[in-house]
Specification:
The complex is a heterodimer of chains A (105) and B (156).
Chain A: H1 2-12, H2 14-25, E1 28-29, H3 30-36, H4 41-53, E2 57-62, E3 65-70, H5 72-97
Antiparallel strand pairs in A: 1-3, 2-3
Helix pairs in contact in A: 1-4, 2-4, 3-4
Chain B: E1 2-6, E2 9-16, H1 20-27, H2 31-34, E3 46-51, E4 58-63, E5 68-78, E6 82-87, E7 103-113, E8 116-124, H3 133-139, H4 143-154
Antiparallel strand pairs in B: 1-2, 2-8, 3-4, 4-5, 5-6, 6-7, 7-8
Classes of the chains: A alpha+beta (105), B alpha+beta (156).
Chain lengths: 105, 156
């Protein structure tokens, strides 16, 4: 429960959302994020700290750098849900589309 | 049918034994013919679904009591190739009024043969629903059916 509010607050900020979406595409060190986004390196570090404490982002050391990435456990639940949801829905759609359209009443 | 997982999106594909125009029509204007009728967030029972065929339109659920739920905005409508709509339902199974907190569904239709169509659906920006991942995980088994349960319970 405690993480809901933290995650909401963390992603309400457009810069943090941009950082999060960038990390979702590929894990990166701080320097790379600062280079790709119109944000200073100290500001990126600060945003990462907030994202990390909200449980949205995780980091691990690679050599002398820390690589940041989206916390896979956080997104797994919603992704699993929609994965199943669309598989079932598209199976129904596939059956319906292979027949003439029937008007829903 | 195959599924690929990325960090913040899911992609599902299905091959349909129908021409591309027909597949597109069934997915959009015929949505009520294949959508699971239990998948709605109305208080009343689902009477019909309407897919407004233009950008700026909505996908609308209508209840047997005359109530309406516009749970998706049509973001792209390019028959018979592509359609894109928003997912304006939050993780508490309520309408989400802030577009910045909604995700997006894109569906493409490709004619593999004159009577076979490949349909690829991607639901992306799932992270925008951010405020309730843990709750979503807890509700996975109930989810839509929770709304269904509430509806049944309300009629007793």
């Amino acid at each position: 429960m405690t993480n809901h509010t933290a995650a909401l607050t963390a992603l309400a900020d457009p810069t943090r959302r941009a950082i999060f979406e960038r990390l979702a595409r590929s894990p990166s060190p701080v320097g790379e994020l600062a280079r790709d986004l119109p944000v200073s390196r100290p500001a990126v570090s600060q945003h990462l700290k907030v994202l990390k404490s909200a449980g949205l982002v995780t980091d691990h050391p690679v050599g002398t750098r820390r690589i940041y990435s989206v916390d896979p456990a956080g997104l797994a639940a919603i992704r699993d849900y929609f994965d199943q949801f669309w598989q079932q829905s598209l199976a129904r759609f596939g059956s319906a589309a292979s027949q003439p359209i029937q008007e829903e009443t | 049918m195959t599924t690929q997982l990325h960090a913040t999106s899911v992609t599902t594909a299905v091959d349909v034994q129908a021409p591309v125009e027909h597949a597109f029509r069934v997915f959009t204007e015929g949505i009520g013919s294949w959508w699971n009728p239990e998948h709605h967030i109305l208080q009343a029972e689902l009477a019909e679904m309407v897919f407004e065929p233009h950008v700026g339109g909505h996908i609308i659920d209508r209840g047997t009591d005359g109530s309406e739920c516009r749970w998706a905005r049509v973001l792209a409508y390019d028959p018979p190739r592509r359609v894109c709509f928003s997912w304006d339902i939050n993780l508490h199974w309520q309408l989400e009024p802030d577009p910045a907190k909604t995700s997006e569904v894109e569906v493409t239709f490709t004619a593999e043969e004159p009577s076979r169509t490949r349909v690829v659906l991607t639901h992306r920006h799932l992270e925008r629903h951010g405020q309730g991942w843990e709750q979503m995980r807890d509700a996975v088994s109930s989810g839509w059916s929770l709304a269904r349960f509430a509806e049944v319970a309300a009629h007793r």
